[in-house]
């Protein structure tokens, strides 16, 4: 998963969402890539990390 891939998805009108991201570093990586949403088992923790 990299910025080029995400941009290609957007050019083709796809949306980008991720599921079960419970790690702070990984959630920041997806946020920085421009994810539309993050589904997690740890919402308070991830919200704090972001």
Mind explaining what this structure looks like?
The chain is built from three helices and two strands, in the order αβαβα. The protein has 50 residues and is mainly alpha-helical. A two-stranded parallel sheet has the order 1-2. β1 (17-18), α2 and β2 (37-38) form a beta-alpha-beta unit.
Radius of gyration: 11 Å
Overall shape: elongated
Structural class: mainly alpha
Strand order of the largest sheet: 1-2
Give the helices and strands as they follow along the chain.
HEHEH
Proportion of β residues?
5-15%
Describe the largest sheet: 2 strands, parallel
The average pLDDT score comes to 94
N- to C-terminal distance: 19 Å
What is the count of β-strands?
2
Low-confidence stretches: none
Percent of residues in helices: 40-55%
**Number of contiguous helices:** 3
Q: Which features does this protein show?
A:
elongated; about 10% strand; about 50 residues; 2 strands; 3 helices; mainly alpha; single chain; two-stranded parallel ribbon
Describe the structure concisely for a colleague.
With 50 residues, the protein is mainly alpha-helical. It is 52% helix and 8% strand.
């Amino acid at each position: 998963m990299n910025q080029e891939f995400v941009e290609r998805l957007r050019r083709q009108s796809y949306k980008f969402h991720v599921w079960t991201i419970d790690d702070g570093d990984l959630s920041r990586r997806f946020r920085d890539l421009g994810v539309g949403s993050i589904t997690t088992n740890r919402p308070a923790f991830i919200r704090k990390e972001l």
